[in-house]
Amino acid sequence: THVCSVCLLQCNNVRIPRNISWAISGTECELQKRNMTENGLGHRVLNMDTMNPNVKRVEYAVRGPIVQRAMQIEKELKEGVKKPFTEVIKANIGDAHAMGQKPITFLRQVVALCAYPDLLEDDKFPEDAKNRARRILQACGGGSIGAYSASPGIEIIRQDVAKYIEKRDGGIPSNPDNIYLSTGASDAIVTMLKLLTSGEGKNRTGVMISIPQYPLYSAALAELAAVQVSYYLDEDKCWSLDVGELRRAVKVAREHCNPRALCIINPGNPTGQVQSRQCIEDVIRFAAEEHLFLMADEVYQDNVYAEGCQFHSFKKVLFEMGPEYSSVVELASFHSTSKCFMGECGFRGGYMEVVNMDPEVKLQLTKLVSVRLCPPIPGQALLDLVVNPPQPDEPSYATFIKERTANLDILAEKAKMTEQVLNTVPGIHCNPVQGAMYTFPRLSLPEKAINAAKEKGQAPDMFYCMKLLEETGICLVPGSGFGQRDGTYHFRMTILPATEKLKVVLKKIREFHKRFTEEFS
Amino acid sequence: MGGSLNERNGTLCELQKPNMTENGFGHRERVLNVDTINPNVKRVEYAVRGPIVQRAMQIEKELKEGVKKPFTEVIKANIGDAHAMGQKPITFFRQVIALCVYPDLLEDDKFPEDAKNRARRILQACGGGSLGAYSASPGIEVIRQDVAKYIEKRDGGIPSNPDNIYLSTGASDAIVTMLKLLTSGEGKTRTGVMISIPQYPLYSAALAELAAVQVSYYLDEDKCWSLDVNELRRAVKAAREHCNPRALCIINPGNPTGQVQSRQCIEDVIRFAAEEHLFLMADEVYQDNVYTEGCQFHSFKKVLFEMGSEYSSVVELASFHSTSKCYMGECGFRGGYMEVINMDPEVKLQLTKLVSVRLCPSIPGQAMLDLVVNPPQPDEPSYATFIKERTANLHILSEKAKMTEQVLNTVPGIHCNPVQGAMYTFPRLTLPEKAINAAKEKEQAPDMFYCMKLLEETGICLVPGSGFGQRDGTYHFRMTILPGTEKLKIVLEKIGEFHKLFTEEFS
Questions:
Q1: Which residues form the Aminotransferase class I/classII large domain (chain B) (predicted)?
Q2: How close A469 comes to chain B (CA, Å)?
């Protein structure tokens, strides 16, 4: 047996851990080392060397270092520290309510009724809201949103989702058994990626994602140790997707992994493009040829602003292409309560529809989601209202339409304004924000700034955004967090701040960019 | 068509093949099929919602369609879902949630002032004053502070730092996250995680998914499912031959076994974890569910700190709580938290990063959790009702725990330990040899065979012991004590009758 050279006496009640401590570090045992390191703690069971290496590789810029710093600055402001600004404006994340958008009255009335059914006796609530609440509660165990639901979600809500999809897609059938409710769209996306990941070495699953991309994808792939296969969107053609580029990417990838899935975000995050019907057809044909599972992230499906643009669901286009495709191409599409006109991020509602999924795999999927029991019921209820909103003959219809239209109109206005103002800035080039909630403009950065960033070990656009944050209080996410072509620099900004505030933000960015360019010229 | 397809599959391209098979859809191999699916997912098992529950749902459908059965309803005693079994929500909690969801109600004088104040405070801490905004990924700051205060009070003043609190989507979410962080290495250095047998199958399922090594230690059924440190020693020693045991999971009060750990036992476990250099995970979601006289809930955190700095400064601990159990039973809100102790600061940053990818736990669940940890105070208008409701719920549970034990122990061939806490009984079944053989012929575990037959004949849905793990050659089921008292009586009676008939049939 080993005896610790330092703590023999102190340790005499403690058996020195076998195998671990001695093998690693000289003559002192682990228990002693802890007391010897600077911070008084030290060698833990779980430390940077022993933790899951996949987790270490995860990066998620949308809540990364710049957001951490923004929160710190907010604290400093509260503590009275003087800054050249009075508030931090977080344009880093698509969080409509945080930026002042008001909830849709009907949605909240129904959820409140579900949470506290005594209110069903209250005549302040319209009858249609009460009916919806009663219907949801009837479908809950014990008539309470406090009961677990079936793991794929409450049955009638899955039916409502299927009806919504059918209506959206001009009557193409949707089967409730193919609908899985989820905790926001992220949850369902990660679950699908998890199912798809297998093999080792050259056989390891590769997943094609766009660059720029929403970093949930890269983060999930890192965590699963799946291979990221990047395809580039064409910035010069308004971030459109070119099947030639998909072909290039998949061919290269086949050298070192097994590409099995293709992820598309439409409308695009962070790039705001809306895919044409033709392009979707091309992508589907490509997926069929290359035998890829399609994942269509369509959480911004109501957020289309540019004239001539229209949202086409992958499901609809697939079925319109005829059975040659619609009977074989495997597709999972995702939607959520977090975006569109409602922006109910906090409820973490969402669903996925799977098409042509192997029945045995569906059983595995059902089993897998059952381990987490069920998505939050308030989120499921809210999703039900999104897919089954007030109808023309119902008392809440007029208000609902008014609120929805107002929210979408304002977003459209802000999308246009953002593009226009940013394009007046020399050194910033901004594509039209056709849809979604973001702009991803390209920055011309002076050589000196790039070198200054390198000296700090920062990506040049991180350097830029950090400086912007420190000088103006505006929190953006550097393009490097989403991926971009080498030598190009961008940031992602949401168009969500209220119109007047957005004007100020854009003006401040313009001034900052000018100053920054001068400083480093 | 892409050239690559032809190369892979003889002379017909992939797209041609589908039109040639029987079902018209084609057997063109799907991209995602059982051969290509993540093999770890295939290994996952989760009995609490497994085949028997699927069958129960099917039977429910059949009943609705008018199929005749020897019973009129399915009673799901398979899962700890209090509201589904008729328990009523705590009024104050639901009032505050309704106010948060629809703040126009703040003008309504039907709501008590304390409920309004709580709602205002929560809304103030939300982005844009709305439950619809994302929160910080570890949870809303004031709620993390409230959780820390709750823990301090619970643990007699031992400090709790809000920075160590991570809110979660139910406890399951946080448990899986911790196991994920702990999993590394390959082959003999692959992380091993010690879990009790019987266990709550979330643990085995998560370990299968993560391809971590399950290290089983057995609870002692003869000593009321207590934990013996020698058994821990045996298990860890055996495990060191083939993996690297790095974590020890404890469920207290126990699920599915209903035991409440003694303070002494917790001390022993902590000492063992220190000696063996193990990260402790304490699943304490049933902390208010203690029924037996002489039993008391002791948190691992409290015991750890009372053992002095030799332990409290080194043993790494994560403890878990949830809104789903105790007296509130708000499963559907998926609220929960974990507290981490002595976690490496760099690992904490990694944890924060990891949870940020999922953005945040559901805000209604966070709000619900805030009310659980910060309930009405004696000087507030809702206090009396709150206490009345809480006491009633816990009292009824305690009654049902006792009744369950008593009735089941009157059945020859069923032996049931006291339900000291939690929400389940896990009685041992004596099954006749013939039944065991009949089960084997059907390739079913004998207790699965038993539970399936019970379901088909009585409509009662239980989970076979094999889904939780048990000593070889022993058979159990897990049943919740949650059905309403009158219904529970009937359920217990029916089980008694069924067991008698079953024993006769196979003798």
A1: 107-495
A2: 19
Q: Measured between beta carbons, which residues in chain B are less than 8 angstroms from residue A290?
A: 2, 4-5
What value of ipTM does the predicted structure carry? 0.90
Cβ atoms of B241 and B202 within 8 Å: the answer is: no
Closest by Cα among B154, B195, B116 to B380: B116
Do residues A63 and A138 both lie within one domain? no
Can you give the three-state secondary structure of B21-80, one letter per residue?
A: CCCCCCCCCCCCCCCCCCHHHHHCCCHHHCHHHHHHHHHHHHHHCCCCCCCCCCEECCCC
Q: Report chain B residues whose CB lies below 8 A from the CB of A367.
A: 44-46, 49-50
Q: Which of A17, A360, A373 sits opposite B275 (nearest CB)?
A: A17
Which residues of chain B are within 8 Å of residue A291 when distances are taken between CB atoms? 5, 14, 31
Structure letter (DSSP) for residue B503: H
Residues A84 and A149 reside in one and the same domain: no
CATH of the domain at A247: 3.40.640.10
Backbone angles phi, psi at B244, to 5 degrees: -115, 90
Residue B4 placed within a domain: no
A321 with A452, same domain: the answer is no
Estimate to the nearest angstrom the gap between the alpha carbon of B401 and the chain centroid.
19
For residues B141 and B148, give the distance between their C-alpha atoms in angstroms, rounded to a whole number: 11
Through-space distance between the first and last CA atoms of chain B, rounded to whole angstroms: 66
CB pairs under 8 A between A and B: 336
Task: Report if residue B172 sits inside a domain.
Answer: yes
CA-wise closest residue to B268 among B220, B305, B317, B230: B230
pLDDT in single tens digits along all 507 residues of chain B = 333 333 333 344 444 444 444 333 345 789 888 888 888 888 888 877 778 988 998 999 999 999 999 999 999 898 889 999 999 999 999 999 999 999 999 999 999 999 999 999 999 999 999 999 999 999 999 999 999 999 999 999 999 999 999 999 999 999 999 999 999 999 999 999 999 999 999 999 999 999 999 999 999 999 999 999 999 999 999 999 999 999 999 999 999 999 999 999 999 999 999 999 999 999 999 999 999 999 999 999 999 999 999 999 999 999 999 999 999 999 999 999 999 999 999 899 889 989 988 889 999 999 999 999 999 999 999 999 999 999 999 999 999 999 999 999 999 999 999 999 999 999 999 999 999 999 999 999 999 999 999 999 999 999 999 999 999 999 999 999 999 999 999 999 999 999 999 999 999
Residues of chain B with C-beta less than 8 angstroms from the C-beta of A347: 131-132, 362-364
Domain at B67, CATH number: 3.90.1150.10
Q: How far is A458 from chain B (nearest CA, A)?
A: 19
Which domain, by its residues, includes B499? 47-85+385-506
pTM of the entire predicted model? 0.90
> d(Cα B395, Cα B401) in Å, to the nearest integer?
10
Do A259 and A223 belong together in one domain? Answer: yes
Residue after which a domain boundary falls, among A328, A359, A387: A387
CB B323 within 8 A of CB B288: no
Tell me, rounded to whole angstroms, the distance of Cα B293 from its chain centroid: 25
How many structural domains are present in chain B? 2
Among B332, B352, B373, identify where a domain stops: B373
Best CA proximity match to B37, nearest among A195, A263, A226, A227: A195
d(CA A308, CA B60): 50
